[in-house]
Amino acid sequence: MACLLLGSNTFYPINETKKGRKTVSANEKTDANAELAQILESAQRLGVELDEAEALRWLTAIAAGKEGNEVVLDMESGAFGHHVSMLDFSSVQLERFRRIGRIVEITDTPGVVESALSISGSAAQSKIQSYPGDCDFFERVNITVPTRAEACTILSKLMRDKALNTERGADYQFIEVKYGSYQFDCARDGVGRKKGSPVSWSIGPLRAGQFDVTTADGKVTTLHWDDFTMEPGWCKLDWVVSDPERRTLANASNVLDVTWEAPDGSITPLDGYLDSYFQEVYLDAASIPIFSKVAKHVSQDVLGDYVKQLEHEVYKYVVEHPNYGKAAKRMYNVFRLTGRYTDAAFIRELFDEPATMLYQVWSLLGTVENAMSPDSSIPLDDVVAQTDELIVMVVKALEGDEETEIVRSLLRLRGGLTSAMVSDVRTNEIEAARAQIVNVINNFFQERLTALPSVNGYLEEIRART
């Protein structure tokens, strides 16, 4: 990968060898070999297959680039991102992500709206996430107008128009948009909503521009889309997309980090927080100028803030709502960014184990459920084909009673896709399979994470926090 280092607004070439790699010192190679020996011993003891050459390459590369917060550009593909993120990125599926990106992105308005679209999460870690979950996108949207109020008004229209204009297509179906936060405790459709939680808009309320809630004293109140214009909060859009060639489905989401650029050049995030860039891979080199302009306003302690945010989520998935698979994904990012490279390299190998295929199955079951909505434009044949593939994946990953129970649920679900099975029964089959799968995933990761002393020590430290 030939790389460039991005400064605030300037490009600088880094030290490269003839092969386009940053020079690695003998000490860095020695340290990487020593760390690899520790990983090998742990992997063998736990029955984890380990690609020694790949693990050594990663340890050496991350050691070589551990100083600073460099952002690098892959000259061949045009993708760019933080150097640690780029170590886990493969351009093999880049064109697929760019195709889906054209569905989910907020497009530019010359002189007013400029954007930079990236992939994030498991989608951005395609070298190690053999079985990724959803297609997660992250987009920086910068709005240049005289006042914050004008920026908020433009965002309100952008998001509503985007959702309404992409309600359905030959290969996608809109699910919902998150926009605004509840200003008081209430109930919506019989479900309690806490003050401060994000507001979800499916296509019906979105078209109407309003919905009703019941307040704590029993009064019915109507909330309107425009009520949230000045405080948009967390902004996110979701779709189901299908791949016509591979007959597969995926949930595609786009989280927006929206900023207002004032006439004096100052940058203000509309939700009060400018996100870090440690887990995004940006899809187009043409968006480097907007990324560079916005990124230089990120907090000086952006890495510390990001790690704290991740550790809060680790606590959530270890203590509050146990899901060691999700905890492992976040711990990997904590470790690779805080110098715990041996622990990170070990977790990196876990993502390629056959049992982790079930994480993708769990995610895709939710996608199948979304694709089965009565007004969905996703072809039924694609939903059936995806369900068939899920059954195959479970058979490959499991055996014995666990395999039997999950496959039985999936077969009942598949049989109901082309019959008059009511939606509640389909949902029950999906939830039954998802509950069984998450239990298997949880046990797999918990057993291996707690068996490595250094990682288990970290987990004990997390559990002790309040």
Gist of the model:
The protein has 466 residues and is an alpha+beta fold. The protein has helices at residues 26-46, 52-64, 83-86, 94-104, 148-165, 203-208, 288-295, 302-320, 324-337, 341-350, 357-371, 380-397, 400-417, 423-451, 453-464, and strands at residues 4-6, 11-13, 71-73, 80-82, 113-119, 135-144, 168-169, 172-181, 186-188, 191-193, 198-201, 210-215, 220-224, 235-243, 248-261, 267-269, 281-282.
Question: What does this protein look like?
Answer:
By secondary structure, the protein is α+β, with helices and mostly antiparallel strands. Helix 1 crosses helix 2, helix 8 (302-320) runs antiparallel to helix 9 and helix 11 packs antiparallel against helix 14 (423-451). The model is unreliable at 1-24 (pLDDT under 50). The protein is globular, with a radius of gyration of 23 Å. The chain has helices at 26-46, 52-64, 83-86, 94-104, 148-165, 203-208, 288-295, 302-320, 324-337, 341-350, 357-371, 380-397, 400-417, 423-451, 453-464, and strands spanning 4-6, 11-13, 71-73, 80-82, 113-119, 135-144, 168-169, 172-181, 186-188, 191-193, 198-201, 210-215, 220-224, 235-243, 248-261, 267-269, 281-282. The protein is built from 15 helices and 17 strands.
